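Before relying on records like the one below, remember that each one covers exactly one chain. Contacts with other chains, cofactors or solvent are not represented anywhere in the record.
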Amino acid sequence: LVDACIARDFPDLQGQGEALYGDWFAQIAVRTAEMIAHWMRVGFVHGVMNTDNLSVLGLTLDYGPYGWVEDFDPDWTPNTTDAQGRRYRFGTQPQVAYWNLSRLAQALSPLFAD
């Protein structure tokens, strides 16, 4: 699956094995960071950044509930079901993206010897 994704969606990546997979993961991390940075600069709040709502392509899926902060409030979330824990609030989007990338790294770990 990884090889097919790299061949189809990351054709510019060269190499093989662990080096290729490491470069691929780095590209995913960069794309994700850029997406989150763009969200933060315009005040966009995804609302449900579960691991299944982010893509290796550096985009997101399932935008509901989402919104934009009117006045700067790092604790604001459009997700009323997240109101108590506020996991997916505006100010935590970078940390949630990092956590999600960590879960992907964990899933990819069998591809690496060390």
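The chain has a mean pLDDT of 93.
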